């Protein structure tokens, strides 16, 4: 166990903040996740400072600080690094103790204290309950955080059931830290989750969504989602996923739907929203499963369509943005494809259907889906996917029309040349013209399209 901290890891700004606090007669410590990550040799995202200075004094010492949580003793200082011109945010928080948590998220009241150990005792996990004296580098570790780091263990500070009863989000943080750090969850800490789920129910959907996103940054986010499943967390936040547990698939898969989804999510390389789409890509399978007498195996017809509807409900419930929800739903809806020497026209139709901006996402998801099949996976399937990518690149390089905006004429031309009035017929004609051009790009000329548009309008007029 180390007794001193490598102060060379600490940004200069942090020393400036601590020096100003000490110059005003107060103490200062570096606290929280930055201490944990530094001791693990990991990159630090945020550096936080704790002090015995009261909030009113903080505002006097740092008049430009933002009172982000003044009621709970927190201000945020924004500083610009002259070397890299980047803006950095530092949270400064008064040492505190806490009262009851009637909302299951924030303490009803806090009382400020002067003892760093009392402040650390209110924190969630031992690995987050360490502090560093910036003047000496001495590590303050009253709850064995360093021992748990060495043991690769996530363990609650004090009595786990009390920590989880205070703040419902902590159970989800336990799952997230286990995944992102690749640590085991202490058995007593795990056992305290289910008895405190009533507190977890009070956590806002936005908070759950954010923790999901952070969990997706782990190499194997399934480590966190398995904890969520086994502890009962998913029963509250996403019961639809549990329908896949024990839902056997067919000869093409080694795993049930749940474990395949876990494998697919782990294998999917991309940002958190893409990996959430991977988590949900087969959520429609349990509701579409049927047994075929012909093949003597299970089928999952329309599971992509059913899954897209379920994914939309989940994304809406968890308060994803409209753009994020639409992206998740599109990926779930179109994740199922198999390239087999498609024609150029077929590739253009596929691009039009899924959108150019989602091709990379879909290929990443499809590769992860294939790799997540288990022992039935064949490397030749990835080669097929690579051929599709090459074919897509070829088609895109030709700059053929893929939307009505790419056509040689638009609605204004239709109205002026064919005497059409504004209305639905304009869109209908342009859509049919696009289908024509997708099949034969050489027809994307003004004259050819106007001639065909006239035929379409006459057919519609006499139908």
Notes on the structure:
- This protein has 24 helices and 13 strands.
- It starts with 11 loop residues before the first helix and ends with a helix.
- It is of the alpha+beta class.
- The strands form four sheets. Strands 3-4-5-2-1-8-9 form a seven-stranded mixed β-sheet. It has a two-stranded antiparallel ribbon with strand order 6-7.
Key phrases:
463 residues, two-stranded antiparallel ribbon, alpha+beta, 24 helices, 13 strands
SSE order and pairing:
Elements: H1 12-23, E1 28-31, H2 33-40, E2 48-51, H3 55-61, E3 66-69, E4 74-80, E5 87-94, E6 96-98, E7 110-112, H4 116-120, E8 131-132, E9 139-140, H5 145-151, E10 153-154, H6 160-166, H7 169-181, E11 184-185, H8 187-191, H9 197-200, H10 205-215, H11 222-231, H12 233-237, H13 239-242, H14 257-267, H15 272-280, H16 285-288, E12 290-292, E13 297-299, H17 303-317, H18 322-334, H19 344-354, H20 359-371, H21 379-397, H22 411-418, H23 424-439, H24 446-462
Parallel strand pairs: 2-5, 10-11
Antiparallel strand pairs: 1-2, 1-8, 3-4, 4-5, 6-7, 8-9, 12-13
Helix pairs in contact: 7-10, 7-11, 14-15, 14-20, 15-18, 15-20, 17-18, 19-21, 20-21, 23-24
Radius of gyration: 28 Å
Instruction: Give the termini separation.
Output: 85 Å
Mean pLDDT: 94
Structural class by SSE content? alpha+beta
Strand composition percent: 5-15%
What is the number of strand segments?
A: 13
Percent in helix? 40-55%
Regarding quaternary structure, what we see is single chain
Helical run tally: 24
* Strand ordering within the main sheet: 3-4-5-2-1-8-9
**The biggest beta sheet, please?**
7 strands, mixed
Indicate the overall shape.
Answer: elongated
- Poorly predicted sequence stretches spanning 5 or more consecutive residues: none
């Amino acid at each position: 166990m180390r007794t001193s901290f490598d102060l060379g890891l600490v940004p200069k700004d942090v020393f400036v903040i601590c020096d100003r606090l000490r110059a005003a007669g107060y103490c200062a410590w570096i606290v929280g996740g930055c201490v944990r990550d530094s001791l693990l040799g990991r990159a630090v995202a945020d550096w936080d400072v704790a002090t015995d200075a009261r909030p009113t004094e903080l505002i006097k010492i740092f008049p430009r600080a933002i009172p982000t949580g003044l009621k709970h003793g927190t201000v945020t200082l924004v500083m610009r690094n002259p070397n890299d011109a980047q803006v950095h945010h530092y949270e400064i928080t008064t040492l505190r103790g806490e009262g009851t948590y009637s909302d299951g998220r924030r303490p009803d009241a806090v009382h400020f204290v002067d003892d760093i150990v009392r402040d650390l005792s209110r924190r969630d996990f031992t690995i987050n309950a360490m502090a560093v004296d910036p003047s000496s580098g001495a590590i303050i570790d009253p709850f064995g955080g360093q021992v748990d780091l060495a043991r690769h263990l996530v363990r609650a500070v004090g009595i786990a059931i009390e920590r989880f009863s205070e703040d419902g989000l902590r159970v989800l943080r336990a799952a997230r830290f286990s995944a992102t750090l690749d640590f085991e969850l202490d058995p007593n800490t795990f056992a305290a989750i289910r008895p405190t789920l009533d507190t977890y129910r009070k956590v806002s959907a936005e908070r759950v969504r954010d923790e999901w996103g952070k969990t997706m940054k782990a190499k194997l986010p399934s480590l966190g989602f398995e904890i969520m499943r086994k502890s009962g967390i998913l029963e509250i936040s996403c019961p639809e996923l549990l329908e896949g547990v024990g839902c056997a698939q067919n000869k093409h898969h080694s795993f049930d739907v749940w474990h395949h989804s876990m494998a697919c999510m782990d294998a999917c390389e991309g940002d958190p929203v893409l990996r959430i789409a991977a988590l949900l890509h087969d959520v429609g399978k349990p509701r579409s499963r049927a047994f075929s007498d012909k093949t003597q195996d299970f089928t999952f017809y329309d599971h992509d369509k059913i899954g897209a509807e379920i994914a939309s409900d989940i994304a809406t419930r968890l308060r994803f943005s409209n753009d994020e929800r639409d992206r998740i739903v599109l990926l779930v809806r179109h994740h199922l494809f198999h390239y087999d020497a498609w024609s150029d026209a077929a590739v253009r139709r596929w691009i039009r259907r899924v959108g150019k901006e989602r091709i990379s996402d879909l290929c990443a998801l499809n590769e992860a889906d294939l790799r997540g099949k288990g022992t039935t996976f064949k490397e030749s399937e990835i080669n097929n996917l690579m051929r599709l990518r090459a074919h897509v690149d070829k088609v895109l390089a030709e700059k053929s029309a893929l939307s009505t905006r790419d056509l040689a004429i638009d609605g204004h031309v239709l109205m002026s040349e064919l005497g059409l009035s504004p209305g639905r017929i304009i869109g209908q004609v342009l859509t049919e013209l696009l289908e024509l051009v997708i099949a034969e790009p050489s027809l994307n000329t003004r004259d050819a399209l106007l001639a065909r548009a006239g035929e379409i309008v006459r057919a519609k007029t006499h139908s």
